[in-house]
Amino acid sequence: MSTTFDLDGQPVPFQPGDTVIAAATRAGHTIPHLCWDPRLGPSGACRLCTVEVNGRPAAACTTRALAGLRVACQTEPLQQRRRQLLQMMFVEGNHFCPSCEKSGGCALQSAAYAAGMTGPQWEEFYPQRAVDASHPALWLDTNRCILCKLCVRASTELDGKGVFAIGGHGIHTHLIVHSPSGRLADSAIAATDEAAQICPVGAILPKRRGFAVPIGERPQDTP
Ligand code: SF4
Ligand code: SF4
Ligand code: FES
Prior knowledge:
The chain is of the alpha+beta class. It is 21% helix and 17% strand. Helix 2 (76-92) packs antiparallel against helix 3 (107-115).
C-alpha cells in the first residue's frame, strides 16, 4: 500500500518503513544531505538534511514517513541554517579546496555551492591533525573529515570489518582506526572495501589517482 506526505506542496508517495529522505529521493526530490546513504542504517550525524516536519525541525534521514505529514525543505530560514551548518564544517577542519584532490567531486563543496554559502563568518580553527599515509593504496587525511560516520557504518554494515570508529567528545571528537598501531596500514581495510570508497569528502582517498579527471569534467563541474 502506498500513501503520501506533502513536501513543499507536492505529494510524495512512500512505502512502509521509508524515511522522509528515502521516499523524497525516490520521487525525484533533492533534500541536502551528507551522512545519508540508502544502503546504510540512519545516523543523523550531519544534520544537513534538517527539514520542518509539521512545523518542527527534524532530520529527514531519521524521520519515518507518515501519511499526511507536512514537510518543508526549500524555505529561506532552512537554507540559512544549512549555510551556517556548512560554514561550521569548513572552519572546524582544514579545507583548502583548490589543492584538494576531491575538489569537483566533493559532497561538502557541492552542498556549499548549492546552499549559496560564501565565506565562513567564523574564525577558522586550523586544527593540527596528522595525515596517515601508511597504507599502500589509501590516504587518510582527517583534516578534511566531517565526522559523517559513513566509513564507520560502511566498514561495519557492508564490509563486516569495523575498521573505523568515532571517539572523543565535543571539539575533540575524531575518527579512530581500529588497528594495533592506530594506523591504516595495520588495519583490515582494503582499497576495494566500501569503507574505502564511501567518504563524501577528501578524507579517505585512493593513492595514485589524484587529479586524474581534468577541471571541467569532474562530477560536480557542471551546474
Ligand atoms: Fe574542499 Fe571537499 Fe576537499 Fe574539503 S574535502 S578541501 S570541501 S574539496
Ligand atoms: Fe565521513 Fe570521510 Fe570522516 Fe569517514 S573519513 S567520518 S567517511 S568524512
Ligand atoms: Fe540526515 Fe546527515 S543526512 S543528518
